[in-house]
Amino acid sequence: MEISKTYNPKETEDKWYKYWMDNGFFKSKPNPEKEPYTVVIPPPNVTGVLHMGHMLNNTIQDVLVRKARMEGKEACWVPGTDHASIATEAKVVAMLKERGINKADLSRDEFLKYCWEWTEKYGGIILSQLRKLGASCDWDRTRFTMEDNLYDAVIEVFVDLYNKGDIYRGYRMVNWDPEAKTTISDEEVIAKERAQKLVHIRYKGEEGDVVIATTRPETIMADAAICVNPEDERYTHLIGKKVKIPLIDREIEIIADEYVEMDFGTGCLKVTPAHDQNDFELGKKHNLEVIDILDDSAKLNEKALILVGEDRFVARKKIIKLLDEAGHLEKVEDYSSNVGTSERTGAIIEPKISLQWFLKMERLSKPAWENVMNDTIQLIPPKFKNTYNHWMENVRDWNISRQLWWGHRIPAYYLEDGTCIVAKSKKDALHIAREKYQLFALSEKDLTQDEDVLDTWFSSWLWPMSVFDGFKNPDNADINYYYPTNDLVTAPEILFFWVARMIIAGYEYKGQYPFKNVYLTGIVRDKQGRKMSKSLGNSPDPIDLMEKYGADGVRTGMLFSSPAGNDLPFDEKLCEQGRNFSNKIWNAFRLVKGWDVAENAENPNQLAIDWFESKMNAAIAEALDHYTKFRMSDALLTTYNLIWGDFCSQYLEMVKPAYSDGQSQPIDKATYEATISFFDSLMRLVHPWMPFISEEIWQNLAEREEKATICLTDFPTSGAVNQALLGDFEILFELVSWVRNTRQSKQLSPKEALPLEVKTSDVAKYEALQYLIEKLANVSSISFVNNVSGTSLVIKGDEFGLNLGELVDTEEEKEKLQKELEYAHGFLNSVQKKLSNERFVQNAKPDIVQRERDKMADAEAKIKALEEALAQLG
Fold first, then answer.
1. Of 215, 458, 271, 220, which is closest to residue 357 (Cα–Cα)?
2. How many CB atoms lie within 10 A of CB 107?
3. 280 and 372 belong to one structural domain
4. Whole domain around residue 264: which residue ranges?
5. How many whole angstroms separate alpha carbon 67 and alpha carbon 871?
6. Per-residue pLDDT tens for 376-417?
């Protein structure tokens, strides 16, 4: 084959991904002869496009899946998307607005048609982008949380839990998103520090006035009481008395409760049960009236009496002015505090009393808590166990209803008198009404289904089971083979949204965990430490990055510095490093495939071959150990260093044939075949990380059978490691580096062959290495002496000398040797001090003490060699 001078990622990626897909290499089916390895994708929002978090998450998943496939396991990676109720509905509402259509003017069915239209048009974008990344999913298994089977599973679970008494409906204080006009869960509320105004307001009464301080003066019309601490002597005489709410003159009582902190603010608290969680609890305790003055858009309603129809923040500014004009404003202070905002829309959350559906969590959560804490399920890194434990110990009932149309509609049906019947369908509800209530004249028209849909997470918590149709057909071949899954890769911020709830569902419906390991990635941040986001404009487009650096380059770039659970400080230079790695591999491939092979030539490279075989075996063992501990970045760096440093920079340098008369000399067949074999192993080792270039090179290293692929070859396993040989080569590389540096520092030509002197007790070792020393360091000869002369080096007790003679300036060399001698004395002195410290010698590990003794011996030998070199110079 003709090998192009430069590597072309785009051409390679398109060619091989099509080849993989055409041949069905990623497809999976139950195979009792193989061990299953199953991963379910954290389903990205159907509204989404690929972002840097997806890149990180899905690259890690693909590495795990590709490696498992090469290990002979039946690897199955299930892709899919989430319907994302709030996000999708917002996108569709915006689309309709552009067309001049208001959602309020549409029926539910009409609106849902637009949702499906939008989903069919845009919903597959992110999955197609994952193909560009190289994701080896079984695309025939792609699922969507709103498809029929998965929809039915959600409804079935709701009915089941309701019948078990775990789901109930009631009035509770919830987090209301006025922009999305729906409730959201506690975990979707993001606290953000905001600059505010602390407004001091005087409430007047016949028995005396009180002053309260609030950041929400627009809610005073919803006040039900003023509360003071019963021990606060400033106000004890007012307990039980009444004051009037400013501007509306409605009387409220002054009550006492230990909840009020005497030293906070004025010591008086306005109690507004409809608009604050703590006030709501206080109101229940004291049986206070609940007055909700805000509508679903957070505008003041008729119950406010004043400023009706005004937005809450507009009303806040206006009411301060009205209070001032009426003589009720004491003062206004600048104030900073945390405010809850919606993760979905960014809107400031309103606490709101609302009739909602809830799932009791106390019973359900116990197995999920116990089996993470006892490590039946491993969280990686384990530091997240503490966070998980705290959340599970303080778990609250889950508000599962949302005031939206796009989603799984709650299967609750109401009679005219408000009686609620929960059933899988209206037909089933009618049957229950007739059987349970003897309402035989009732028809389906007399039943009205609940308008709300379920929280999106109420569908995705079933994902590991529902993707295998574990509810529709609980004993099917797929669920029996692939479940429980193996590894879940996801972000820490959805540990409770999704991970904990999947574990809960797994134990409730399968009696076992849904996955064995949970790998929690870090958050991708920019150089300033900010989370990458579209709103900040600090996130590069992953597709643009892949166009620029190639998918392999971006994959490795993302993972060069991404240990589990730690945030990734992303720098585009990492992708550049990844691209450079691709180019390094490609250039090595061109070099090797460009060699002419001499059939009968002698093999002078057996020692180099033996060394690299040991080096590779040691690196494979190290990488495999990292994989078992989910140290993914470490596994990559071990692979990277082996290929770039040990193979390309060292091994190929040792074995490449000489270059003379303007052309490369032939290489012996044994060395060539060993090198091709090494290249084959290295491409299999790096394949999970760099699937495209590894396939391209592997296919062209040798003749392959039709429909062969590196995807289905064996992942490398470790063999014997000759530690003594590895140690000898460490000396070789240090020696070669020293000779080259010495030549450069003396401004000698690289072509200037230099004689080397060696003082050693192990002559055989250096005789074996002589060919490589001469080749790599351009040494003209090696002589074994009792005392070395000239510039010297000491490595592990052996001394090396370069007698440069007339090649260098004697006085300049003496000056340099004198400086080296002074430094060596200083170094020896510091080591001797450490070894004379009895506490260090007694308490340090034996190998550390021995290391210091070796340093002392080397320093003493260095000093002796330098003194002898100076003496020779006169």
1. 458
2. 9
3. no
4. 182-351
5. 61
6. 999 999 999 999 999 999 999 999 999 999 999 999 999 999
